[in-house]
Automatic annotation (TrEMBL):
Residues 192-363 form the Disease resistance R13L4/SHOC-2-like LRR domain. InterPro entries: Leu-rich_rpt (IPR001611), Leu-rich_rpt_typical-subtyp (IPR003591), LRR_dom_sf (IPR032675), LRR_R13L4/SHOC2-like (IPR055414), RLP23-like (IPR046956). One of its GO terms (cellular component) is plasma membrane. It is a single-pass type I membrane protein. Keywords: Cell membrane, Glycoprotein, Leucine-rich repeat, Membrane, Repeat, Signal, Transmembrane, Transmembrane helix. It is found in: Cell membrane. This is Disease resistance R13L4/SHOC-2-like LRR domain-containing protein.
Length: 879
């Protein structure tokens, strides 16, 4: 639009002006345009929506006083509220939505008696405080104040809707605000209300039964709140209701049968609640129902396919994530001629449909994951050429996909066939599905190589997961051309060759998760990884990679999971690691060839929950600052995630990490955010155990076995209340086992073997369950239960077992002592008889002393035990 708008001033008779989506911002003519419009006294209808207005001038005098319709929406206007609007006494329709008006709403606005429609939504910087009384707005039919950051108790607004507005208002939208309190029962006084939205607030409590008195109500949206209790049965009074949305609340109980009496209902959304019971049969009496969303509840029983099949107008059906069962046949689906959305995921439902059946509908969304669809591939879905989302993961398919299956389908963008037993070659599958954004084929039996030109034929990919198949060959370098790729998971295959070194410095990559673990990759970690600045998860473990710790990772400052374990990487753990990766939550470098000391500044990683440096050649002390790991000082919850990578809707990428705990490798995925573990085992660490490790209250696993640690167990170890596994074996620790360890009620795996601990093993509480004697083996100075070595004051202390068991044990010990004495005396008497022969025969003498050297250690242990038992026997006889 030209900068000179003087010509418009000459249109004095102009009544209707529509500049919707006409860009008037580029040449600075927007202010001039409004001045020109103000010179047109006959204007009655003006639409300047989405035309690039940035500000509104202040008019000292308004000329278009006949204006009845004004739309300034979606312009990002950042001016104060235009008070000159109040002088347009004929204004009926005012739309100021989706702007950035500042300041407050003039109180005079609520006195504009001519207004019938007022839309202020999306002005989050505007003070949306309502006046105490809107008695002047007697003609107002529609009020939209959604997404305006209005806060406070919604029931305090009752006074603002008193007077004649209660008899005129037909549409009220207060959604997407910060309102709290109980469901506003005063709304039932608005007898003419047709449309009501309170969605996306913080309302609590039950839905009032009096809501059924709004007999003219057509749409009700109270989704995304915290409403609880049951759905009122008397909602059947809403005879004109066409749309009911109560999703994303905490509603409980059964779905009322009376909902089947809402004969005008076209949309019913009760998803994401805690509803139980079965699907009411009465819902089959809703001939106009187009969408039925009951997913993510606790519904159970049969799926009632005969009842639902009566809903011939149905376009969307979501019953996912419930406990519904039964069998679905072609007859049950034949009446759904308009069906577009079919989601029955995560239910024990069996599909028994002939392969030659041709459905009458055209789906664009299919999710039958975790249903029983296989073992054959469901060819009855092959003609769904408009499908966009196609999810058959975990559906029991153990079949090859026919080559002709994908030819009719050209629009698919989300494909998930994971966790089946699908066979065939990967290249044959990918060549038919070139438009995907999301491809998940993990955990199947696919074979072959990744096509060399995958970067050209699938340029829009943002997730590619082919893990846990039998794929081979090298990883093609064209994969680096997928600049929008966010997740690449090729783990647990048979890929060989090098990690691709093809990422370029000039490109802006979005890759956030790279998982090439459990393959046969060789060579060094490439330098081009430094260009993946958004990387959050890097897993290259269980390969044959060599070289030193990659300097390229110094540029990957957003990494939260780093797993380079089970390779051949050597050198030192770099000091810059903690500085360059401050968000690390999982650091796993086990089973490599790292040397040197553990960098003390690793203690500055405040987010670290899992550190595994086991099976290397690390030396020096355990850094004392390890007790400062902030994330190990508290218990984490299931809602946390180690990854911030959003892959689809509300789903986050969940990496799989192996943690050695309780003597076995446990793989964590969904529960990884709960794990808190330190594993420094099988190195050459020395010194004492740092006392500040006892400050890591959230620690679940501590393994520092197989080192050269000395000193005592820290006395305050009982502060580790949630410790489940403790392995201190194969060190040089000494002293007594702290008695307070018996209060560590979560401890279920303990290994103190092959140290120099002494004294009595603690008894009671948790130690009563740790009865495996191998826990304490290799500690010759330990006594007490569960070892068969009574302590010296055993007759004064309660041991496990009854008196007869103790007497039997003592009798056996006496016999053993006399046997050891006899053996010793016999050895001494026979010694000189043997010595004479050894002195005479030189060859016998050499053989004998070789034998003696081999048995020396055994004899030493025997003599120590003998002396201790003799002392105990003498002490008992004296007493």
């Amino acid at each position: 639009m030209g900068g000179d708008v003087k010509w418009m001033c000459q249109l004095s008779s102009l009544q209707h002006l529509n500049l919707y989506q006409v860009d008037i911002s580029s040449d600075g003519s927007s202010g001039k345009l409004l001045v020109a419009i103000n010179m047109l006294p006959s204007l009655s209808w003006v639409n300047l929506g989405s035309c690039g207005l940035k500000s509104i001038p202040s008019f000292p005098h308004v000329n278009f006083t006949s204006l009845s319709f004004l739309d300034l929406s979606d312009n990002n206007i950042q001016s104060p509220f235009p008070e000159w609007l109040i002088n347009i006494t004929s204004l009926e329709h005012l739309d100021l939505s989706e702007n950035n008006f500042k300041g407050g709403i003039p109180s005079a606005l609520w006195s504009m008696s001519s207004l019938t429609v007022l839309i202020l939504s999306g002005n989050e910087r505007l003070d949306g405080k309502l006046p105490g009384n809107q008695s002047s707005l007697c003609k107002l039919r529609s009020l939209d104040m959604s997404q305006m950051n209005i806060s406070g108790d919604v029931n305090e607004l009752e006074g603002s809707f008193s007077g004649c507005i209660r008899n005129s208002l037909q549409s009220l939208d207060l959604g997407l605000n910060q309102l709290s309190g109980s469901f506003p029962s005063w709304l039932v006084e608005m007898k003419m209300l047709k449309h009501l939205s309170l969605s996306s607030n913080s309302l609590q409590g039950p839905i009032p039964a009096s809501l059924g008195r709004l007999s003219f109500l057509e749409t009700l949206d109270s989704s995304l709140n915290y409403l609880n209790g049951s759905i009122p049965y008397n909602l059947e009074g809403l005879s004109m209701l066409t749309s009911l949305n109560l999703s994303w609340n905490h509603l409980q109980g059964m779905i009322p049968e009376t909902l089947g009496n809402l004969s005008s209902l076209r949309s019913l959304d009760l998803g994401y609640n805690i509803l139980s019971g079965g699907i009411p049969k009465s819902l089959g009496r809703l001939p106009s129902l187009e969408t039925l969303y009951l997913g993510h509840n606790n519904l159970s029983g049969p799926i009632l396919t005969e009842t639902l099949s009566n809903l011939s107008s149905l376009q969307g059906l979501d019953l996912s994530d419930n406990h519904l069962g039964g069998m679905v046949s072609a007859a049950h689906l034949s009446n759904f001629k308009s069906l577009q959305i079919l989601s029955m995921a995560n239910n024990p439902i069996i599909f028994s449909i002939s392969s030659d059946w041709i459905p009458p509908f055209r789906l664009w969304y299919v999710d039958l994951s975790l249903c029983k669809v296989g073992p054959l591939f469901p060819t009855w879905l092959r003609l769904q050429q408009y499908v966009i989302t196609f999810n058959l993961s975990n559906s029991g398919i153990s079949d090859a996909i026919p080559d002709s299956y994908w030819k009719p389908i050209s629009s698919i963008v989300y494909l998930d066939l994971s966790n089946n037993q699908i066979t065939g070659r990967l290249p044959d599958l990918l060549k038919h599905i070139q438009l995907q954004y999301y491809v998940n084929l993990k955990s199947n039996r696919l074979e072959g190589e990744i096509p060399e030109d995958i970067g050209e034929v699938m340029p829009l990919l943002y997730l590619l997961s082919l893990s846990n198949n039998t794929l081979n060959g090298s990883i093609p370098t064209s994969i680096c051309r997928l600049r929008d790729l966010r997740v690449l998971d090729l783990s647990r295959n048979y890929f060989s060759g090098n990690v691709p070194n093809c990422w370029e410095p000039s490109s802006s990559y979005r890759l956030e998760a790279l998982n090439l673990a459990h393959n046969s990759l060789v060579g060094v970690i490439p330098n081009s990884l430094s260009f993946l600045s958004k990387l959050q998860s890097l897993q290259l473990n269980a390969n044959k990679l060599s070289g030193e710790f990659p300097l390229a990772l110094r540029s990957c400052s957003n990494v939260s999971t780093l797993d380079l374990g089970e390779n051949k990487i050597s050198g030192k753990i770099p000091v810059w690691l903690a500085e360059s990766m401050p968000y690390l939550k999982v650091l796993r470098l086990r089973s490599n060839n790292f040397k040197g000391a553990i960098p003390p500044n690793l203690a500055s990683l405040t987010h670290l929950q899992v550190i595994d440096l086991a099976n290397n050649d690390l030396v020096g002390n355990i850094p004392h600052g390890f007790g400062n790991f902030t994330a190990m000082k508290f218990i984490h919850n299931i809602n946390e995630t180690t990854s911030r990578i959003m892959i689809y809707r509300t789903n986050y990428y969940k990496e799989v990490v192996g943690v050695v705990m309780k003597g076995q490798v446990l793989e964590y995925q969904r529960l990884l955010s709960l794990v808190v573990s330190i594993d420094l085992s099988s190195n050459r660490l020395s010194g004492s155990i740092p006392q500040d490790l006892a400050d890591l209250v959230g620690l679940q696993n501590l393994n520092i076995s197989g080192n050269m640690l000395s000193g005592h167990i820290m006395k305050s170890i009982n502060k580790l209340h949630f410790l489940e596994s403790l392995d201190l074996s194969r060190n040089r620790l000494f002293g007594e086992i702290p008695t307070l360890m018996s209060s560590m009620t979560y401890l279920s795996h303990l290994n103190l073997s092959f140290n120099n601990f002494s004294g009595k093993i603690p008894q009671g509480n948790q130690f009563d369950t740790l009865t495996d004697t191998s826990i304490y083996m290799g500690n010759p100075y330990l006594c007490g239960f569960p070892l068969d070595v009574p302590c010296e004051d055993g007759d004064k202390q309660e041991d496990h077992g009854n008196n007869s068991q103790r007497e039997s044990a003592e009798h056996k010990n006496n016999n053993a002592v006399w046997m050891y004495l006899s053996t010793t005396v016999g050895f001494i008497l026979g010694f000189w008889a043997v010595c004479g022969t050894l002195i005479v025969h030189k060859r016998w003498r050499a053989i004998f002393f070789i034998f003696i050297d081999g048995k020396f250690d055994q004899l030493y242990v025997f003599m120590i035990l003998l002396v201790r038992r003799l002392k105990r026997l003498i002490k008992k006889n004296i007493m």
